[in-house]
Specification:
With 405 residues, this protein is an alpha+beta fold. The protein is built from nine helices and 14 strands. It binds zinc ion.
Length: 405
Amino acid sequence: MIRVQLRYSFRLYPGTGQRAALAMAFGCARVVYNDALRARETARSEGMPFPKTGDLSKQLITEAKSTPERAWLAEVSAVVLQQSLRDLDAAYRNFFDGLQGKRPRMGAPRYKSRKDTRQSVRFTANARWSITTGGKLRLPKIGDLKVKWSRTLPSVPSTVTVVKDSAGRYFASFVVETGPEVVLPEVAPELGIDLGLGHFAVLSDGTKADSPRFLRRAEKRLKKAQRELSRKEKGSKNRDKARTRVARAHARVADARREFHHQLSTKLIRENQAIAVEDLAVKGLARTRLAKSVHDAGWAQFVSILEYKAARYGRTFVKIGRFEPTSQVCSQCGVKDGPKPLHVRVWTCGTCGSVLDRDINAAVNVAKAAGLAVSACGAQVRPGLVPAPRGEAGTHPTPQPSTAR
Ligand SMILES: [Zn+2]
């Protein structure tokens, strides 16, 4: 059975004393992290062996508590400090795996700063955190925190991460492992999705999906807040206020974007038995002109939501390699007629005479590369017609079995 890890986040409302205690926990976790990073960097520069986590834990947590410089480490849960060392381990592992080509290259672990916009601490079962009968989150050495339980947790998680985001909001984040919760009844359509530049996503059935108005509005507000911030004098009080406004607007955009990703992915998973996307390996694109729009569109987040929902609801999900020439091949007859400049949105295949919409053609090719049986008719545009405008999304007939020849 497929196990799926789902993240659940709930807003926390700590009181004044609890906020101070959390600030202390964030600070201590950061200090231990930085101490351990320094110990390892020093060992490396002196040609000594890589210090083990167990030794660092003894030296930088247990023993450090009895020194005057680090005595305050005793004021927070030891679990929080040990988890901070684990985070550093994970950062090193990702870095080394990147060097060995096992995953996209990452930078070496960096020192954390009190100015980092996102701060977090993690409590495992060892910390004996709990949810009280009154529905509060009880954290050792912090207290009972008020939680807004916006969803039901499917099971009791063993670990909770407390996060403070750039907008100064607090969240409790749980990872819950579940099996496929509900296997949806089987449906016929199979779908390829292409990341459009003009549209958020283009589907092989001919639909072009765009960000909804609530997201565009949040983005507009963010831009306005950023403009205002840039006009404020450096070091002024007003600049601080403007910066907070930008952080809030940022958080709202992120929320709205996630909401949109959830809505769209739920719809696609319900309506299709199998879904294929192109693995864009966003990191690899970071140096190209595409990068900004790819990051802005949050494509990676959308794909990962789609992936876990597929697993959860018993649907097929396929990622195809990122070097498939999706815009160079006619989705109707399969002939490869080479790259086309980006401004070419519609063209006629020289071999079979099909009139092809660039984005939909790519989406059909994605589906075909993944071995899905999609209708290719969506990719065809009747001569003289412009590609489907925004308002037309969703009016296409249900796809028929592949009619490639
Ligand atoms: Zn053709």
